[in-house]
Specification:
Length: about 450
C-alpha cells in the first residue's frame, strides 16, 4: 500500500481524497495555487506545497511543478481527482517515468478512451451498443454534409477530443451542416488542440445514464449500478441520482454487463464510468468513457455502501476487488445537487467572491462534500462549484423530500447560488414523476421570486 499520496487537484475532490487516505493510514500532500492558500484541502493535508500563481496553466496544469512537489515531499503516488490533468495521458506517462504510481489509467487507456472515435470503434468490437453513425473522423465539412444527408436528420456533430459539451453541435437540416462543422471544429481546436470531428445519428429525447465501473489489475471488473444524469444545462450536470427512475432490474443487468465488457476490452484498472444515451424504450447506446472518478460518485457510494476512492487506491495498489461486491444490491435512493456560485436568474452568471455566512444541512441521510466555509473567497480562476449536497432515503419520493429539506436548511450568504433553482426542480411535477430526459431544463419554468427568501440569507 502507498505511504504518501499527492493530490494534484483542489477544492472538494482534493479534500475527499485526503479524507479517504487518512482513513487508510496514508499520508497526504496538497498542492495549491496562491488563490487557494486558505482552502481546506491545504489545511487538512499532512503537507502542502504551493505550485504557482492562480492561472491553472501556471499551477494545477503545470506538470513539472506537480512532479517537483511529489519529489520533495517523498510521495509515492499521485491522485489527479477530476478535471485538470485527470485524463491527461501525458501526465499519466510522466508520473510513471518519474517513479510515481498514477492513480488513474495508463496513458494507452486514456488515449484509447479519450479519442471518441477510437473509443466507439473499441466498444463496438466488444459488443457494446453504439449510436448509429458514420465511422471514423470526417474528412471535411462537405464529408459531414454527405454523411448527414445519407443518415437522415437530426444528427450530432462531435469533436473527437471533446468533452463538457464543447465542440458539439445538433444539426436538424442539411444547409446547417457546413457552418455547424466549421464552428464546432474551431471550438474544439481552441479547447483541445484538435479539430477532428465525427458524426452520429441524434437520439431524440434521450436519457443520460452512466454506469460505475470498478476493475482490478487481475482482469476482474464489475459494475456498481447506474446513475441518472439527465438534469443538465448545456451538457453540465446539476442534479444526479441513483438508481435511474427509468432503469429496471433487467435493464440494469444488461447495461451493467455492457459496461463491464467495455472496461475489460481495454484492460481497465481502477474506477471509471461508461456513459450511455438511453431512449424511451430503454435501448441504450455507448456515448463515452470517463477514465477518472466522477463528480457524482457519492450517489453510488450512498446506494452501495462502497467507498469508491478507497477502492480506487486499492485497485492501483494491486489488490483484488472485494468478492462480496459481486452480489451487491442497491439500497434505497440517492440524489446529489451540485451547489454552484452562479445566478440562475441571470443566465447562470458565475458569482465569485467572499462567503459571509455559511451553514450546511445535516440530519439523517444527508451528506455534504465541500471545501468552503464562512469567510472563504470563491476564486474567479476556477469552476464555480462550492460543494455537493447528497441525500439518501428509502425510496425516490422520500429522497426528493429530503433533498428539498436539506436545500432549505442551507445558508450561503454573499454569492448567489443554484440552490433556489434546485429547490424548484425538486418541486417540479415532471421531475417527481421521473419521466424526463436531457431536454428537461430547456423548458423548465423557474420563478426566482418564489425562492427570493433564499437570497436574503
Amino acid at each position: 500500500m502507498f505511504k504518501k499520496v499527492l493530490i494534484a487537484n483542489r477544492g472538494e475532490i482534493a479534500l475527499r481524497v485526503i479524507r479517504a487516505c487518512h482513513e487508510m493510514g496514508i499520508k497526504t500532500v496538497a498542492v495549491y495555487s496562491t488563490a487557494d492558500e486558505l482552502s481546506l484541502h491545504v489545511k487538512f493535508a499532512n503537507e502542502a506545497v504551493c505550485i504557482g500563481p492562480p492561472p491553472s496553466n501556471e499551477s494545477y496544469l503545470n506538470i513539472p511543478r506537480i512532479i517537483a512537489a511529489g519529489e520533495i515531499t517523498g510521495a509515492d503516488a499521485i491522485h489527479p481527482g477530476y478535471g485538470f490533468l485527470s485524463e491527461s495521458a501525458q501526465f499519466s506517462r510522466i508520473c510513471e517515468e518519474n517513479g510515481f504510481t498514477f492513480l488513474g489509467p495508463t496513458p494507452e487507456i486514456i488515449n484509447a478512451m479519450g479519442n471518441k472515435v477510437q473509443a466507439k470503434i473499441t466498444m463496438k468490437k466488444a459488443g457494446v451498443p453504439v449510436v448509429p453513425g458514420g465511422e471514423g473522423v470526417l474528412d471535411s465539412p462537405e464529408d459531414a454534409k454527405n454523411k448527414a444527408d445519407e443518415m437522415g436528420y437530426p444528427v450530432m456533430l462531435k469533436a473527437s477530443a471533446g468533452g463538457g459539451g464543447r465542440g458539439m453541435r445538433l444539426v436538424k437540416k442539411s444547409e446547417d451542416v457546413i457552418p455547424a462543422y466549421k464552428s464546432a471544429s474551431q471550438e474544439s481546436l481552441t479547447a483541445f488542440g484538435n479539430e477532428d470531428m465525427y458524426i452520429e445519428k441524434f437520439i431524440e429525447n434521450p436519457r443520460h445514464v452512466e454506469v460505475q465501473i470498478l476493475a482490478d489489475s487481475h482482469g476482474n471488473a464489475i459494475h456498481l449500478g447506474e446513475r441518472e444524469c439527465s438534469i443538465q444545462r448545456r451538457h453540465q450536470k446539476l442534479v444526479e441520482e441513483s438508481p435511474s427512475p427509468l432503469v429496471d432490474e433487467e435493464t440494469r443487468k444488461l447495461i451493467g454487463a455492457a459496461a463491464v465488457a467495455g472496461a475489460k476490452a481495454v484492460n481497465y484498472v481502477g474506477v471509471g464510468t461508461i456513459e450511455f444515451l438511453m431512449d424511451k424504450n430503454k435501448n441504450y447506446f455507448f456515448m463515452e468513457m470517463n477514465t477518472r472518478i466522477q463528480v457524482e460518485h457519492p450517489v453510488t457510494e450512498m446506494v452501495t455502501g462502497v467507498d469508491l476512492i478507497k477502492q480506487q487506491i486499492k485497485m492501483h495498489a494491486g489488490l483484488k476487488y472485494p468478492e462480496y461486491l459481486q452480489d451487491f444490491k442497491l439500497r434505497g435512493h440517492s440524489i446529489e445537487c451540485r451547489i454552484n456560485a452562479e445566478d440562475p436568474a441571470n443566465n447562470f452568471m458565475p458569482f465569485p467572491g467572499e462567503i459571509t455566512n455559511f451553514h450546511m444541512p445535516g440530519g439523517k441521510g444527508v451528506r455534504v462534500d465541500t471545501h468552503a466555509y464562512s469567510g472563504y473567497k470563491i476564486p474567479t480562476q476556477y469552476d464555480s462549484m462550492i460543494g455537493k449536497i447528497i441525500v439518501h432515503a428509502k425510496n425516490r419520493e422520500r429522497a426528493i423530500i429530503r433533498m428539498y429539506r436539506a436545500l432549505q436548511e442551507t445558508i450561503i450568504s454573499g454569492p448567489k447560488t443554484t440552490i433556489p433553482y434546485q429547490m424548484a426542480i425538486m418541486e417540479n411535477e415532471i421531475f417527481k414523476s421521473g419521466n424526463f430526459d436531457t431536454s428537461f431544463l430547456e423548458t423548465f419554468d423557474y420563478n426566482p421570486e418564489k425562492y427570493a427568501f433564499k437570497e436574503e440569507n
